[in-house]
Amino acid sequence: MTDDTPTAPEGRQSGTRQRIQQVALELFAEYGYDKTSLREIAERLGVTKAALYYHFKSKEAIIAAVFEEILEEMDGFIAWTKTQPRTSTARQQIAQRYVESSKGASSVMRLFQENGPAMRELKVGEQMRDRLIDLVNTLTPEHASVPDKLRIRIALFAVQLSRFSMQDVPVEELDAAIVEVVFELLDRVSWE
Asked: Which helix (H) or strand (E) element contains residue 184?
């Protein structure tokens, strides 16, 4: 029995779902979300469309599954951030945790950036936007100046942009630089 059959044991189904998500992301990156069909995903996987349909009824369901873990991690990060004091040490920890948590999401965020119009129309796009707004609001002091609001937004959005546009830099070196810059921007914000 193979991974792609509907009768596969639960653990193997999970592996199949992950493989479907991975292949779908590859195709979405190659051709775009709108121009990729379930048939093409099934063909790349070497399974029938019915086998794919058993696991996911639509491309949106695949995207929702991909983003589910990211959204859960963001929720945890935002909740943790809300409990942190607004000290320089806490801002350093926020910067480090945000950069660390963004590592696994870089290919998904790239998909989001490259397929913006399509992603914005999906429920998951709205959920992602809402989480990012919540994070920005969590880090923005009530009486923040416009430059401080801009620093916070640049700090957060620069993380994914850097991962996307600086792939020629070794990951460890890039992560250290991102943490440094994010912290510098957050530390310049007036928190009183």
From this structure: helix 171-187
User: In CATH, which of 1.10.1740.10, 1.10.10.60, 2.40.110.10, 3.40.190.10 is domain 10-57?
Assistant: 1.10.10.60
Q: Which of 5, 9, 10, 97 is nearest to 47 (CA)?
A: 5
Give the torsion sign (CA, 4, 7, 9, 11): positive
| Helical ranges in 32-122 per DSSP H | 38-45, 49-55, 59-82, 88-102, 106-114, 116-121
Q: At 185, which amino acid appears?
A: L
pLDDT for residue 45 = 94
Distance CA 68, CA 70 (A): 5
> What is the tens place of the pLDDT at every residue in 71-122?
898 899 999 999 998 888 988 899 899 888 887 666 677 777 777 777 777 8
Q: What is the mean pLDDT of residues 48-57?
A: 92
Q: What is the pTM assigned to this prediction?
A: 0.73
Both tokens assigned to 142: 């009530």
